[in-house]
Amino acid sequence: MIVITNPFSIENEFQILHQLFEEGLALLHVRKPTYSEKEMRSFLTNIDENYRSRIVLHKYHKLAEEFQINRIHFYEKEQVNPARFQKPCRYVFSTSTHNMTIFNDLKTEFYSAFLSPVFPSISKPNYKSDENLLETISKRTNFNTKLVALGGINENNIKIALDSGFDDVALLGCIWLNDNPIQKFKKCQKIVHSY
Fold this sequence. Notes:
By secondary structure, the chain is α/β, with parallel strands linked by helices. It has a single domain, classed as TIM Barrel (Alpha-Beta Barrel), CATH 3.20.20. The chain is 29% helix and 17% strand. It has eight helices and eight strands. It has an eight-stranded parallel barrel.
């Protein structure tokens, strides 16, 4: 199970992030689209170095080396070829997709990819897919890349996503728009672990 950071700074953010890691968070996608490079460096500095191996960096990829982060995420619109990285490459790549055709066409260098929004978004009201992504999974031909459900994921539909054929789920609004993000994380984690 993956958690994506709130796009904006929130109160007690680092305390919450460290608690999530302590509770067993496997991967934290650091997505702060409006952050400058200086703000991103400051953000990463505030995360305990023991947890940096669990970070996936969405922006300012050059900071990965400085903070010993080995996971890099590319947005769908970036159309970046991971092969441009030096061989042998020490990075694990992920990306974002919004339909099964794009997911199926991904290069083999991508370890995982988000497919979104699977359900109506919690953090972005009125943001939904043009197609039923749960139904399009039957058209999956790419089994080299881990398929991760994103968008509207919460404790009520995690099992639906996993039963439909997704390999993993990612949480954003479910965590950050909740009064008790740690409790919500643990509830979702319990469902994933029981699957």
